[in-house]
UniProtKB/TrEMBL annotation:
PROSITE patterns listed in its UniProt record: MPN, UPF0758
CDD domains for this protein: MPN_DUF2466
Gene: radC
Molecular-function GO terms, alphabetical: metal ion binding; metallopeptidase activity
Protein name per Swiss-Prot or TrEMBL: DNA repair protein RadC
Keywords, alphabetical: Hydrolase, Metal-binding, Metalloprotease, Protease, Zinc
Length: 223
């Protein structure tokens, strides 16, 4: 057993015996990177990641391309870190706890928890039944700067596969301004019209930014 092997075994044992609370952020990153970087010391790489992005949360939500710019991080490590972050986001999705989203306030609270603080733009589609019961919540796009990239076919297929009566859209503005752009409005109207032909209602489009949200329906933009 080499020097690195012994160190890795000790760190694994610390995690298993005492839990993540017994380890610093750089140690948790170092341990995770063991599984993508099998034959190199990952301690320095963990420190570089935290120095580059500022916090463990920002490391786990950074785009793959930015992660790979850090010395020592290859594609496998970047994918692993994004996977860990994505699984954490999925596990924390409010739809897993709160099953009813039937009003602007409920939708705003749902998407604030899901999107507030994200560093890249993400677009979600939430499908509900006639009583507001959550049927599915899926990402339609990530990292794009405008709504024009939205796939109408994907939005319609998601609604049909979920058996939805209604749909909420939501995306965040990392710039910190929650006001919809003209492109946001135009793309949303296209989705509304496509769903309407299938007797599925686009209930609202929520825009999240800086701890606040704007409802397009309440703002009169979906009439």
């Amino acid at each position: 057993m080499g020097l690195h092997d012994g160190h890795r075994q000790r760190m694994r044992q610390q995690f298993l015996s005492h839990g993540p609370q017994s380890m610093a952020d750089h140690e948790l990153l170092e341990l995770a990177l063991f599984y993508a970087i099998p034959r190199r010391d990952t301690n320095e790489t963990a420190h570089r990641l935290l120095e580059q992005f500022g916090s463990l949360d920002r490391v786990l939500t950074a785009p793959e391309q930015e992660l790979e710019q850090v010395e020592g991080v290859g594609q496998n490590a970047a994918v692993l870190l994004r996977l860990i972050g994505a699984m954490g986001d999925r596990a924390r999705q409010p739809g897993r706890e709160e099953k009813i989203v039937a009003s602007v306030d409920q939708a705003g609270a749902y998407f604030l928890r899901l999107l507030d603080g994200q560093r890249t733009e993400q677009l979600y589609q939430l499908c509900v039944d006639g009583k507001g019961k959550v049927l599915s919540c899926r990402v339609l796009s990530q990292g794009q700067a405008d709504m024009t990239v939205l796939s109408l076919r994907q939005a319609v297929e998601n609604a049909l596969l979920s058996g939805a009566s209604g749909v909420f859209l939501a995306h965040n503005h990392p710039s910190g301004v929650a006001l919809p752009s003209q492109a946001d409005v135009q793309a949303t109207v296209q989705v509304r019209d496509a769903l309407k032909r299938l007797d599925i209602r686009l209930i609202d489009h929520i825009i999240v930014a800086d701890g606040d949200y704007v409802s397009m329906a309440s703002s009169g933009l979906l009439r």
